[in-house]
Amino acid sequence: MALAGKRVLLIVSGGIAAYKVLELIRRLRERGASVRAVLTKGGAQFVTPLSLSALSEDKVYTDLFSLTDESEMGHIQLSRDADLVVVAPATADILARMAAGMADDLATTVLLATDKPVLAAPAMNVRMWEHPATQDNLDRLRRRGVRMVGPNAGPMACNEYGFGRMAEPEEILAAISRHFGRPAGPLTGRRALVTSGPTHEPIDPVRYIANHSSGKQGHAIAAALAALGAETVLVTGPTDEADPLDVHTVAVTTAVEMMEACRAALPVDIAVCAAAVADWRVASRADEKIKKGDGGTPTLTLVENPDILASLSAGPGRPALVVGFAAETEQVVAHARAKRERKGCDWILANDVSPETGTFGGDANRVHLIRADGHEAWPEMSKAEVGQRLASAIARSFQGAGDGAA
Ligand code: C5P
Asked: Of 160, 233, 379, 392, which is least surrounded by CB within 10 A?
């Protein structure tokens, strides 16, 4: 678990986004962190102490002058007993009080007393965010080492649009994970590159050639490699998947862009090509939308896209271990063996994508791992489990063979 044993003190101040911290607490705890919450008076208007304590499985601290709190744990100790203090949502008001060094409630007292790093997720109306007073306060806090995550631009509860929406729980989680650094594991010190998702090949400004790849499998592999300690770059085509934790994600659209981003990520020890790269692109994309009736039915001339897997396998700077995918609809193992030879990669994960399997876009996958010296049929499992099992096999191959992994 990526955040095992980490102690987060979460200060919840009064903004409409306070409900999102419930999800944040759940995700932090899933990753092994413990969460202790301090709720301001304003925060209690938006989220109840009961829901915070149910999710954190701890007492929620609200009152500076509560004798029980002081006898069980003074505010000084509360502020020291954490590895990281997170203020989410951080309203304009609490940021101002932090900047001024005030200590007029438990939250600000803890923030003034703490010697631990502080991460704030601002959330407020766009005009309040843009106000020079808020911007000055943010500058002062940043100079003092307080780190900010967000806010994002978007529609706001007050019917305005602009900066001020609190970062999403997963973005705050990613910032917290970055703070604590990558977990150590058997792949610590190794660099990995993973491709994922489809590519979109434009025909004109509004149309493109694509496929049904969801990116679920590639994203799961990147997450699993990072969880074992690998410094991981994920190059992904357009997908709805969230960026995995502890992974540097590079978003691209076309195969040519994917190839360039992969080249830029080299050198790596491990490359896993899980993307469903379009085999062809349109030779010359139209600058304007192609109109019906402009000289009859258009003819698209296609040219072949670069083969990223084959090119990474051929070098220069070939990764020690290159893994490809084979999506087959029949004779899965035989075709995948031939593909391993043809592409020059070390391993192939072959899966049956005939329509009745529901693999494309689904959560489950049944794969065969094909190496030079034989093949393993894995039972049906979730794409997350396939990612973990592949990452473990990769880690074992490095442990067993030093750098000559394959
Ligand atoms: O040739 P085919 O598309 O079946 O091969 C699939 C494998 O090759 C996958 O690992 C895929 O990511 C990779 N590939 C690639 N670049 C291409 C086509 C496929 O990296 N242009």
From this structure: 379
